[in-house]
Amino acid sequence: MQIRWKWFHRSQSPFAYALTSHRARLVCAIEAGAAVAVHVYTADRYVSQFAKECLCQEMRKNGSDENWDWYVIDVEVPTRRLLYQFSITDRQEPDGLPVFLGGQGADTDRSLAGYFHLPYLCSRDLYQVPEWVRQTTVYQIFPDRFYRAGSKEHVSESEWYTTPTASLRLGGNLAGILEKLPFLQELGVGLIYLTPIFLADSNHKYNTTDYLQVDPDFGTFHDVARLVEEAHQRGMRVMLDAVFNHAGYDFAPFQDVLHKGKDSAYWDWFFIHGDTVSIEPVNYETFANDVRSMPKLNVAHPDVEAYLLQVARYWIEETGIDGWRLDVANEVDHVFWRKFRETVKSCHPQCLIIGEVWHDSLPWLQGDQFDGVMNYLFRENVLDYFIRETTDEKTYAARMTNLLYSYPRQANLCMFNLLGSHDTERVMTLANHQEDKVARALIAQFTFPGMPMIYYGDEVGMEGGADPDCRRGMEWRKERQNQNILNLIKRLARLKREESALASDYLNFLRVEPGILQYERVSEDSRSRVLITFNHRPSTVSLPISGEVLLAYPEQAYDLSSQMLAPDGVVITRVDTK
């Protein structure tokens, strides 16, 4: 049968997947504007008469992008086996006949359309992520630049606030982070993510010399254990950075290769093109291109694999860390990451695994490798709309909706939604020092499904261009801190922690028109509903809302009595769901 509209579905993530051993999510994409309603018929795979024994449920339209309307439903699967078929009420169908969508295609005849299958919801295949991520705010620290404590050799204030260079060392350490835990707790941080702390001859430590030794620049093993312990006592967790794609030039196995050549037992730990090692020109694979200080590891080699898995297990078991962030994760094979996940989760089931992937990350987000990734696609969408102002409301809503349906629900809950990191320009600099732009971007960040990640110093309005300028010494001078941004993040982190609607993966855009952007977040039990509304118009707009104002930016942007939202204002409201 020929239909006049497009559709898409397949029986695999992110269109069909298990949420629990007896519950599954189904997503169907229908050409924008084509359907009046979409239903799904479900039954056990072994029913004798599907039409008589199936259950019919209406799917919820949950957003649109440039091409698709997205329909979603979570269905119960009592027997763990699922047979299903979609039914579309077509706007253009003259006779009002439904169109059935199944494994064989689309047809008004159910039997010709065929059926989709989720054969069995196996417990060991479930995509399980740490429960604690739902209402957590992440704070990224570049240890050398955060705070220095416990030493007589303090750098001067002028040195601390100097313009950074690629080789600059300011002496920030683990003791300094420990001393600032009250600051982080007051900010509302739930997870502290540290860039590498292991032995390396650089300030960034991404060229590891020894994966089992803390760099003396930062402290000792005891300092790590104490930081984790005291963070836990304050209700915070700690994540370390694993650089497994490559090692450092001084890594003992690489040095052995340099001295012994092919006679080295570690020769096959690296990718060397030739019979001898050359560093000028470089004849071995490295991080990026010809970075001789960072030789790429052959993770597929059994000994390399065993060594790195030992590293992962060691720091969890010996210090109690709560997560690993994986550097250059997309250039390491999937086989290793599956083994990595099994190793990590076996010794700490609630340990969080976050990969560094700057592009579409679905291959790593199927429940067998990472929990989530650093969400750079999110960052670009937010910057384009709120900071660069190169896209409009329709484009922003479409891109964010598309992003949500690019991954399964579990991954969306674990995404590090960032506005900046140690690899990017500071958001305040990109905003050309315009505080209001940054504030609106932060509100969008904290109200999107996932984990908002604050790069150290962004909470006080620090500035900085591309690396290394984005790695300035943390601004501790109160007179130079942006207190408005600091207080806003404290309020947003509290909302993230307290509002159950902000802990779900549900987001739906309600008003998308020139200058107006409004979306809703609803809790999984549907008892809590929060509306987020941005007014980018130069005039006040009417915004009739019956509910409690949770946050307005600026403070007086929303007049509850007149129900008017000021120009460039934002309001977050809790709405009665009865």
Automatic annotation (TrEMBL):
Record Gene3D superfamilies: Glycosidases (3.20.20.80), Immunoglobulins (2.60.40.10), Oligo-1,6-glucosidase, Domain 2 (3.90.400.10)
Coiled coil: none
Superkingdom of the organism of origin: Bacteria
Keywords: Glycosidase, Hydrolase
Record-annotated Glycosyl hydrolase family 13 catalytic domain positions: 140-496
GO molecular function, one term: hydrolase activity, acting on glycosyl bonds
PANTHER family for the chain: ALPHA-AMYLASE FAMILY MEMBER (PTHR10357), MALTODEXTRIN GLUCOSIDASE (PTHR10357:SF210)
Protein name: Glycosidase
Provenance organism: Alicyclobacillus tolerans
